Amino acid sequence: MQKLSADIFRVGVIDRQIDLFEGMYAVPEGVTYNSYVIKDEKTAVIDSVDGAFGCEWLKNIETVLNGTKPDYLIVQHMEPDHSACVAEFVKKYPDAAVIGNRNTFVMMEEFFGKDIAPNRITVKDGEQLSLGKHTLKFVFAPMVHWPEVMVTYETETKTLFSADAFGRFGADDNAEWMDEARRYYIGIVGKYGVQVKGALKKISEYEIKAVAPLHGPCLTGKALNEAMRAYLLWSDYKPESDRGTLIAFTSVYGHTAAAARMLADELEKRGEQVKVLDLARDDWAECVAQAFRFPKLVLATTTYNADVFPAAREFIDRLTERNYKNRTVAFIDNGTWSPVAAKIMRAKFEKCANIKFAETEVIIRSALNGQSIAKVKALADELITL
Ligand SMILES: Cc1cc2nc3c(=O)[nH]c(=O)nc-3n(C[C@H](O)[C@H](O)[C@H](O)COP(=O)(O)O)c2cc1C
Ligand SMILES: [Fe+2]
Ligand SMILES: [Fe+2]
């Protein structure tokens, strides 16, 4: 539990047991499911938590409320990591009204049945609710990253309760924010840049002093400015800086890996920031996030059964399904008898918007030789000019 201001409390829980977030993201440092209580003449609870933590969450609310009862449960997002305990809440506090929008209640009935929350208030976009000295404004943020999502602006402390936006993986609030926030955003919300941009525009008319997301730490001051800057870039599919290359490779017997490392050395010699990741061994969501972080991507992979090596094929799918665009891409292809991976990869990236291809293509026959080494160096020369 954390006191955010005189009347606002974070009453969520920490999940350190979870193996895969949303069934696919590794979270070795756990994750938090945040929920908030605003105490005023009327008391509001914002969002619930994952189903495994209902008891703990209700106990947290009880502690903060100190014998009083909540008047409202605001449901900003129906995904079960935040709404699994709505029914438990309603059972415990039947007099409290559940606040959502039209889409929220359609989903709530799907999850919990028609009889859920008979005491409900359906709000419209921009509608306000006064709790006393705190006034809440509900701002719809459809498809960030579900259709019913709304965020809540609190006028007294100028806090934006941002639902899943501005969240990050990791249970430790003091851990560095950017890497795990990027992995979270690109992985989960990356496809919806247009909608995130729309939501950012809508909230830009409010002065925001604090952001209280549903995962990870609350953001204020410098951390909030950095997060806002990152969200503006990410939602626009822009890299975080003008320079920098991700070399993403796969390799069965080590020869393609050697070419990837040689290219990294050559680029570093030329002053480029480089990150090298193994698509078969490094966390896939980190590989995807790093591809979005940098302006340039080199895919070094093997031709495999007349196609692209599976881990690289999957990586490209994961980029394209997240609308990867506005980047420079180059290829290194290794095949023993008929290398075709570069050609196939290029065709996949041609479907993405605004991709510039390096002219130099490195084709390796089994192992690096004088000719392919010269090509690796030529690719380094070309990449630093792009
Ligand atoms: C299961 C398997 C399928 C392969 N299929 C092809 C292929 O279709 N065409 C080709 O040119 N090479 C093919 N190769 C050969 C690889 O491209 C070759 O082993 C290459 O040197 C791998 O580079 P590495 O040392 O980085 O693993 C295949 C290799 C394996 C293990
Ligand atoms: Fe979500
Ligand atoms: Fe979430």
In brief:
The chain has 386 residues and is α/β, with parallel strands linked by helices.
Description:
This protein is of the alpha/beta class and 386 residues long. It has twelve helices and 24 strands. A seven-stranded mixed sheet has the order 1-2-7-8-9-10-11. Strands 18, 19, 20, 21, 22, 23 and 24 form a seven-stranded mixed sheet that branches. The protein has a six-stranded mixed sheet with strand order 12-13-14-15-16-17. A hairpin with a 6-residue loop joins β16 and β17 (219-220). α5 packs across α9 (284-293) and α6 (193-203) crosses α7. The relative contact order is 0.09. The structure holds flavin mononucleotide and fe (ii) ion (2 copies). One fe (ii) ion is lined by residues 79, 81-82, 164, 214-215. One fe (ii) ion (FE2) binds next to α2.
Summary tags:
386 residues, alpha/beta, Metallo-beta-lactamase, Chain A, Rossmann fold, seven-stranded mixed β-sheet, binds flavin mononucleotide, binds fe (ii) ion
Ranges where pLDDT stays below 50 over 5 or more residues in a row are: none
Structural domain tally: 2
Question: What is the approximate shape?
Answer: elongated
The side-by-side strand order for the widest beta sheet comes to 1-2-7-8-9-10-11
- CATH homologous superfamily descriptor of the largest domain: Ribonuclease Z/Hydroxyacylglutathione hydrolase-like
Major β-sheet profile: 7 strands, mixed
Averaged pLDDT: 98
Structural class: alpha/beta
Please bin the fraction of helical residues.
25-40%
Strand content: 15-25%
The gyration radius over C-alpha positions equals: 24 Å
Gross CATH architecture of the largest domain: 4-Layer Sandwich
Instruction: Determine the number of helices (DSSP H or I, runs of at least 4 residues).
Output: 12
- Quaternary organisation: single chain
Bound molecules: flavin mononucleotide, fe (ii) ion
Report the CATH topology name of the largest domain: Metallo-beta-lactamase, Chain A
CATH class designation of the largest domain? Alpha Beta
Q: Give the N-to-C terminal Cα separation.
A: 49 Å
